């Protein structure tokens, strides 16, 4: 691609599409539609600080309109961006118990999109960065419309994955299996511009671990020994925001080890496999990092239910491998 200062996400997507001679453009359109939804969600998230003026969720705003909770709003925006395109066979959202069918009045397509529309939304009131996470699969069943089976595929089957970070700037980071690329929203022109082509997790990695240590007493002995080692002899620093997309984005840019372990209260931890852990794992692997569930490669885990949780260890490969070694000791006991 010729060196130009302004590469929009649409231009980048078209360039990627041209590298796949049999591409139909459907895939490009889905990613473009997600980017449009992200712009709309970004606008509302960035107004959230004016919530007292615009009206708190559940109330009416100055225009007499019902103010939606932002995660409900984000969920609606993503649904409306994708339901009518004819490219989607079925959707699944963190906000919906069951897979979301494409309305009968719209044609069904060959792709499946799973998403967490606004992860970490509890952080909005304290102005902490939050995010949208998405995963794209190919439909695998023979019926005209998609089903739950089409959603329950291991992360290795993802065609694309990514996230949108609504922070000091709004960034969209995604991969289609050909590297991980970052785009920053220029609100003055309403375009996502290529700002981080071919993102690679730093090597040598930064020695930072990221975990909520309030749960230390609930962890397995291996997990406790791991964190004690990191903060002790290994000389790691610690950063934890408590917003998945923000913690993962920092880990991608700086290196380190993000963890959300299972514990005695929640054996599988808190994070969801299909629309949180698996997309983040693909993004990190494509950037030269790694992701594990503490026992093995996270992307190879076969899902059994739509909202199942999974322990997550992701970041710099040597640190993820170290975590696996410490946790393997649990398996021996
Ligand atoms: P804890 C936010 O509520 C979230 O779902 C993720 O964004 C974040 O990584 C995690 O929960 C934080 O959970 O238990 O540390 O507060």
Describe the structure in brief:
By secondary structure, this protein is an alpha+beta fold.
Give the tags:
2 domains; binds 6-O-phosphono-alpha-D-fructofuranose; eight-stranded mixed β-sheet; 20% strand; globular; five-stranded mixed β-sheet; D-Maltodextrin-Binding Protein, domain 2; alpha+beta; Fructose-1,6-Bisphosphatase, Chain A, domain 1; 333 residues; 13 strands
Description:
The chain is of the alpha+beta class and 333 residues long. The protein folds into two domains: 9-197, Fructose-1,6-Bisphosphatase, subunit A, domain 1 (Fructose-1,6-Bisphosphatase, Chain A, domain 1, 2-Layer Sandwich), CATH 3.30.540.10; 208-332, D-Maltodextrin-Binding Protein, domain 2 (3-Layer(aba) Sandwich), CATH 3.40.190.80. It is 32% helix and 20% strand. The protein contains nine helices and 13 strands. The strands form two sheets. The protein has an eight-stranded mixed sheet, with helices on both faces. A five-stranded mixed sheet has the order 10-9-11-13-12, with helices on both faces. Strand 9, helix 6 (221-231) and strand 10 form a beta-alpha-beta unit. The chain is globular, with a radius of gyration of 20 Å. The structure holds 6-O-phosphono-alpha-D-fructofuranose (P6P). 6-O-phosphono-alpha-D-fructofuranose binds next to helix 7.
CATH topology of the largest domain: Fructose-1,6-Bisphosphatase, Chain A, domain 1
Can you tell me the number of structural domains? 2
Task: Specify the helix fraction band.
Answer: 25-40%
Average pLDDT for all residues: 92
Oligomer kind = single chain
Note the gap between the termini.
54 Å
| CATH architectural name of the largest domain | 2-Layer Sandwich
Give the radius of gyration.
20 Å
Low-confidence stretches: none
Overall outline: globular
Beta-strand percent range? 15-25%
**SS elements, strand count:** 13
Give the biggest beta sheet.
8 strands, mixed
Bound molecules: 6-O-phosphono-alpha-D-fructofuranose
Q: Give the number of helices.
A: 9
**Can you tell me the CATH superfamily of the largest domain?**
Fructose-1,6-Bisphosphatase, subunit A, domain 1
Strand order within the widest beta sheet: 2-1-3-4-5-6-7-8
Main CATH class of the largest domain: Alpha Beta
Note the run of SSEs as H and E.
HHHHEEEEHEEEEEHEHEHEEH
């Amino acid at each position: 691609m010729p060196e130009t200062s302004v590469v929009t996400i649409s231009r980048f997507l078209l360039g990627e599409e041209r590298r796949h001679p049999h591409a139909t453009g459907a895939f490009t359109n889905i990613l473009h539609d997600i980017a449009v939804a992200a712009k709309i969600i970004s606008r509302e998230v960035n107004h959230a600080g004016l919530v007292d003026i615009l009206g708190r969720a559940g109330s009416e705003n100055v225009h007499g309109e019902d103010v939606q909770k932002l995660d409900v709003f984000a969920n609606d925006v993503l649904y409306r961006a994708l339901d009518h395109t004819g490219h989607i066979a079925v959707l699944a959202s963190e906000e919906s118990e069951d897979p979301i069918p494409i309305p009968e009045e719209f044609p069904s397509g060959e792709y499946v999109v799973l998403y967490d529309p606004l992860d970490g939304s509890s952080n909005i009131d304290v102005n902490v960065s939050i995010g949208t996470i998405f995963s794209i699969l190919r439909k695998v069943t023979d019926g005209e419309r998609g089903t739950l089976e089409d959603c329950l595929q291991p992360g290795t089957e993802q065609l694309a994955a990514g996230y949108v970070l609504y922070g000091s700037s709004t960034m969209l980071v995604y991969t289609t299996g050909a590297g991980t690329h970052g785009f920053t929203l220029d609100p003055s022109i309403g375009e996502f511009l290529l700002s981080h082509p071919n993102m690679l997790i730093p090597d040598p990695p930064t020695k930072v671990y990221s975990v909520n240590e309030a749960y230390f007493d609930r962890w397995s002995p291996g997990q406790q020994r791991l964190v004690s080692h990191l903060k002790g002899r290994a000389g790691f620093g610690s950063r934890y925001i408590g917003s998945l997309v923000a913690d993962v984005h920092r880990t991608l840019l700086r290196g380190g080890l993000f963890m959300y372990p299972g514990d005695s209260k929640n054996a599988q931890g808190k994070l969801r496999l299909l629309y949180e852990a698996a997309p983040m794992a693909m993004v990190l692997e494509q950037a030269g990092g790694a992701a594990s569930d503490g026992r093995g490669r996270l992307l190879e885990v076969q899902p059994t239910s739509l909202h199942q949780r999974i322990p997550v260890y992701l970041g710099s490969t040597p640190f993820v491998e170290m975590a696996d070694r410490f946790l393997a000791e649990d398996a021996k006991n």
